[in-house]
Structure formats: C-alpha cells, structure tokens
Amino acid sequence: MRIEDATDDDLAAVVAIYNQVLLTSTAIYRDEPATLEERQAWNETRKQNGYPLLVARTNDAPVAGFATFGDFRAWPGYRFTVEHSVHVADGRRGQ
C-alpha cells in the first residue's frame, strides 16, 4: 500500500467512497450524496488552505481509501485544532 497526494483524477473515486460511507454509516453528518463538482471545489479550498488530501493505493486499487484534515471550527478557541477524516473503500476495510 502506498499513501500519496491525491490528484484531480482521484476525485471520482474519493466521491464514490465518501458516498458509500454516507449511505451505510453514521460517520458523515449530511443527508445528500456529494457530487464530483462539489468535491472538486472542496479540494481546491483545501489546497488553498494548505490541507492535504491523501489517497491509499494498492496494486489492484488505484484508490483504496482517502484521508484529509482541516479546520475544526472557526471560533477563536478552536484556532489550534483540526478535524480529520479517514475513509476506506467497501471491501478494503480491515486489511
């Protein structure tokens, strides 16, 4: 397994993993699946703020999972905190 910076070509797989987690767990607090366009804008904002989007790659899975972090809350008391997310593709969990 290799951990690498995500490329724009990885975003469709990131969206698929994200939406699968959304529909099958309580790990994501939103009601509607994400779109590719939304995640492209989200990723651009992350890049502008200096936050990474990392992907896990295996020989047989170009994107087996992804991880990122970013600002937790905008309030002054949280200025030194971040929130992280790690999501793994269905069928890859536990490996």
Structure report:
The structure is a single chain. With 95 residues, the chain is α+β, with helices and mostly antiparallel strands. Helices cover 28% and strands 29% of the residues. The protein is built from 2 helices and 4 strands. Strands 1-2-3-4 form a 4-stranded antiparallel beta sheet. The longest helix is centred in the N-terminal third of the chain and has 14 residues. The chain is globular.
Secondary structure layout:
Elements: E1 2-5, H1 11-24, H2 36-48, E2 53-58, E3 61-71, E4 82-88
Antiparallel strand pairs: 1-2, 2-3, 3-4
List keywords for this structure.
95 residues; 4-stranded antiparallel β-sheet; 2 helices; single chain; 4 strands; alpha+beta
Proportion of strand residues: 25-35%
In whole angstroms, the N-to-C terminal distance is: 10 Å
Order of helices and strands: EHHEEE
> Which whole number gives the mean pLDDT?
94
Structural class: alpha+beta
| Percentage of residues assigned to helices | 25-40%
Strand order of the largest sheet: 1-2-3-4
Number of strands: 4
